Amino acid sequence: xxxxxxxxxxxxxxxxxxxxxxxxxxxxxxxxxxxxxxxxxxxxxxxxxxxxxxxxxxxxxxxxxxxxxxxxxxxxxxxxxxxxxxxxxxxxxxxxxxxxxxxxxxxxxxxxxxxxxxxxxxxxxxxxxxxxxxxxxxxxxxxxxxxxxxxxxxxxxxxxxxxxxxxxxxxxxxxxxxxxxxxxxxxxxxxxxxxxxxxxxxxxxxxxxxxxxxxxxxxxxxxxxxxxxxxxxxxxxxxxxxxxxxxxxxxxxxxxxxxxxxxxxxxxxxxxxxxxxxx
Length: 279
Ligand SMILES: Nc1ncnc2c1ncn2[C@@H]1O[C@H](COP(=O)(O)OP(=O)(O)OP(=O)(O)O)[C@@H](O)[C@H]1O
Fold this sequence. Notes:
Layout: E1 6-8, E2 15-17, H1 21-32, E3 45-56, E4 59-70, E5 74-78, H2 85-93, E6 100-107, E7 110-113, E8 119-122, H3 134-144, H4 155-161, H5 166-169, H6 178-192, E9 196-200, H7 208-221, E10 226-230, H8 234-240, E11 243-248, E12 251-254, H9 265-273
Parallel strand pairs: 5-10, 5-11, 8-9, 9-10
Antiparallel strand pairs: 1-2, 3-4, 3-6, 6-7, 11-12
Helix pairs in contact: 3-6
Organism: Paenibacillus herberti
Protein name: ABC transporter ATP-binding protein
Keywords: ATP-binding, Nucleotide-binding, Transport
């Protein structure tokens, strides 16, 4: 039988198509050897982006993006359609190679180049093994990462924490809604605790109740991680974020914190974004 193999980049596994359970297990185990150690909270941690440039053909999307993020804060990344938010996340997660520039993690004063294993990336369109149930997947994931197992962590406890009900845990991921897949992705990062978590428009697919649960979850997680999420929803950004970062004309800049809860917030952000040619 002839097969076509597609490699799909993913932060915690490499999925192959056409894939079967066995293929998935074999490749998953191979990939897990590159997973990093979980990050222990309580340490000072900074993520520094230094002059990141990314071009596609003649189009320069990132033009020296520079910024410093710190643990304990939720950052909202704002930018117009096509500004390069996903491109920036892809560069940080190692899915796309940056042309120029660097990203570093500074952990208790020790500087090291950012590794793709430092990143948990919640995609706007999650990539998960749809032929497993949520429970099977998390069980397997936990067994494959014994060094990351946490004391309180029975499998059901993780699902409880994510408010995924009994019935849904034992359904095939294939039948999950977009929002549930996002939740399942987030659950994996509760287990692996990567120091940096990137979320590409994560909360847009959640209903109001789940969105509130997820916001609370992110607030709880921020003490242990650098959390950066991209969004177009200004209300969500002001509600959830400690700091807003604008990606405009390929560069990053901070929205002054005093604007965050001022009545002029929306008009100020529009002013900041309006020079960006529409994507
Ligand atoms: N692989 C690629 N090849 C060519 N061009 C690309 C590629 N990936 C992104 N681009 C271009 O780079 C620009 C930035 O795209 P990107 O998806 O990063 O923007 P974005 O800010 O995430 O947009 P949105 O808010 O609409 O999701 C766009 O013009 C896009 O067409």
